[in-house]
Structures are given as C-alpha cells and as structure tokens.
Amino acid sequence: MVGWADMLGFLPYGEQFHRQRKVFQQALAKQSCVAFRPSQLSQTHMLLKKILQDSECYEEHLRRFSTAVIMEITYGHKVASDDDPYIDIAEGTNKIIVEAGHSLAIIDFFPWLRYLPSWFPGNWFGRLAKDSASFVENMRDMPFEQVRRQMAAGNASLSFTSMQIEELEQNGGLNPEDLQTLKVAASQMYAAGAETTWSTILIVIAALLTNPKAQRKAQNELDSVLGGKRLPEFEDRSSLPYLEAVIQETMRWHPTAPLGFPHSSTAEDIYRGMYIPKGTTVLANSIAMSMDDKVYNNPTEFRPERFLSPESEPPLVGIDFGWGRRICPGRHLADPSVWIVIASFLAVFEVVPIKDDKGQDIIPEFKWLSGISSHPAPFPCVIRPRSGDAVQLVARL
Length: 397
Ligand code: HEM
Fold this sequence. Notes:
Blueprint: H1 15-27, H2 37-53, H3 58-75, H4 85-103, H5 105-109, H6 124-153, H7 160-170, H8 176-210, H9 212-226, H10 241-253, E1 263-264, E2 269-271, E3 274-276, E4 281-282, H11 286-290, H12 331-348, E5 349-352, E6 354-355, E7 361-362, E8 368-370, E9 374-376, E10 382-385, H13 388-395
Antiparallel strand pairs: 1-4, 2-3, 5-10, 6-7, 8-9
This protein binds protoporphyrin IX containing FE.
Protoporphyrin IX containing FE is lined by residues 8-9, 21, 28, 188-189, 192-193, 196-197, 200, 256-257, 260-261, 320-323, 326-330, 333-334, 338.
Membrane topology: Single-pass membrane protein
GO molecular function: heme binding; iron ion binding; monooxygenase activity; oxidoreductase activity, acting on paired donors, with incorporation or reduction of molecular oxygen
Subcellular location: Membrane
C-alpha cells in the first residue's frame, strides 16, 4: 500500500526477484565493495570529529554517519549539513518503515481493510498509506534523476547508481525496465542498510559500556598495532583478532534482527512432523540460536574469547545476515562500515558509565526498540577521548 511491493525484501521468487538480486550481487560483491572504502573511511573520520565536539549526541551522530555513508555510496552524494534533503529522504523512509511496519500490519491479518476508501471514518491506516506512497515515489525519483543529470553533464561521482548505469550502457544500452529495477534497488540501499548499520554499531557500544574488560582488551590490541600514532585503516583488520571477536560476540549477544526478517512459505510443507500451510509467516529465531547453550557455553555472558583459540566456539552462521537465497545482499558493505567505526571509535574514545551522587557507576538497563532492526533506546553514558594524543589524532583529520 505504501508502494514498496516491488522491493527485493518483499518480492516472492520470480523474474523481478532475480533481476534485483543480480543487481545487488554484482554491485555489492565482496571485491566490488572495496571501491567504497574511501567513503566509509572519510565518513568515519567525520563521525569521530562530531563525537569529539559533542559526545552527548553520540546516537544522533551515528545515525547521521549511517545515512551519509549509504547516500554517498548509493548516489555519490556527500551530505554537507543537517538540513541536507538526502537526510530528510532517509529519515522519512525510516519513519515509514516504523509506522507502516507497526500500524499497517493489521492489513496482513485483515486484507480486506485495504479496500476501504481513505475518507472512511476510522481508516487512519488508509490515509497513512496514501501519504507514505507519495513520499516513497519522490524518494526513489529525486536522487536517481540527480545522478542521471550529473552523468549527462559528466560530473557524477563514483557510486552504486552511476556504476550500474555505466555497466548497462556498456552492455547494450538503457531500457526502461532495467532503469526501473536499478532505481528500486538503489532506494532500497538506505531503506535496508542505514538503520541496520547504525543499530549494529549502537549495540556494540552498549556491549562495550557494560563489558569494560573487553573494551580495554580491544583497545590494548589496537594500541599494539597502531602505537597510538595513527587511526585504523581497513588493512589493519587481519592484525586485530580480538576486535573481530568483540564484533562477532556482539552480534551473538544481541542480533540486530533477533527474529530475522519474516518469510512466507511458498508451498505447504511438513517439517519435523509439523504441518506448515502455504502462505505461513515463518520467522528464523536468531536469538534462540545465539543463546543456545548446546552451542555456546554460558550464552548470556558477553565473552569475545569464546570465538578465539583455545575455546573456538562455532562462528555465527546466518545469525547476523540471514541465510540461503535471501541472505542479506548488503553484508559485504555493512560489515566493513561497522568494523571501521568500532576500530576508530576504540582507538580514540572510551565509553564509561555515568556516576551517581556517591560516585558509583550507574549501569544502564537497556530498553530494546524495534524498527527494521532491534536497537537500544538512547542510554546514559560518558564518551571521552582516551588521551591528549587521541584528541590530536582527530584534530589533524
Ligand atoms: C549491519 C547491517 C545489516 C544487517 C545486520 C542486515 C541484516 C539483514 C538480514 C538479517 C536480512 C534478512 C535475511 C534473510 O531473510 O534471511 C537482510 C536482508 C536484506 N538486506 Fe541487510 N543487513 C544490513 C545491511 C544492509 C545493507 C547495507 C544493505 C544495502 C544494500 C542491505 C540490504 C538488504 C536487502 C535488500 C535485504 C532483502 C534481501 C532479500 O529479501 O532477498 N542490508 N539484511
């Protein structure tokens, strides 16, 4: 009803599904995503500066980072200020995801409701869908057409959209169907990629706040590689196994999508003696898998060491990005974004609890919210530079 039925995440198997998956799989293959690293790095540095200037608004800065990086990668647009129209597009999209996801779910249970006219008394969901649909149309057209104009003028930056248009041109020209597939795919990059990335980073920070030993150990590892003299680069990743384990453990401790994304059975089936009718909503219970004490020892404990030798508990398979034919196509883009932000954050800052009147730490109880992903509501904490040298590293950027 909001005009998203043709987005990959909502498409059943079929020709459109294959066309869109192909676009993502080509453009966001592991090797292709290397081209986007400069944007990820420069936006991370911008984020460090913002946190240094105003650490209390850390959550807002993280949201802004996620949006800016995805807009730059998708359309080559550099977000310049807080009132940038591309920020409005991303925020409006998130609002629709949350509002439509919660309020319009009623239509899934009573499909006939969608045929009520929007003026019908009490039909607030019809009006919500109508308003959202015109926003969705604009959020698809405006940035896409901008890239096409820039390409025609010869001044388009490298981006997912410009690279794909160029490829279509080289392979025999642009037809309206291909352009439409690409436009829909591009708009989905930030619908599916901005909030999930920001949520994952926020969950890592929550985990670090409540697990100071793990935080210190990750910082010591970073110091041993960087010598406190420079900020992390993507090439440092293989030298930082503990940091890797911290990120893995965070995704196990609180998966960003604790119930995956809902799927629907395309045919009736029998699974372990249970009859599943066609059209049943099926959820992959990721959080149950990550908290399975037959797989993970003492699963509620946050312990990155479980993924390192000698413990070497099984790595996460699918808990973070899903499985099979519907596995997240943005994973090779999202994973380096999360890594570079956490590595850079820990190289420069520490996150510690606030104190009560008696000087005792106040450990926050996280309130988990849901949108497209699960994330903690803003929690009180202090984020401060680790040293004067760390401040200098950011000041020099
Ligand atoms: C840390 C960030 C991210 C997380 C945790 C995440 C997680 C997921 C998960 C769990 C799924 C469902 C897979 C399944 O159904 O089995 C999914 C699907 C999807 N993701 Fe991501 N994702 C992230 C970032 C991104 C980014 C950056 C993009 C941008 C391209 C993206 C695009 C998509 C799309 C289009 C789907 C639907 C795929 C389909 O239905 O075939 N995601 N993601």
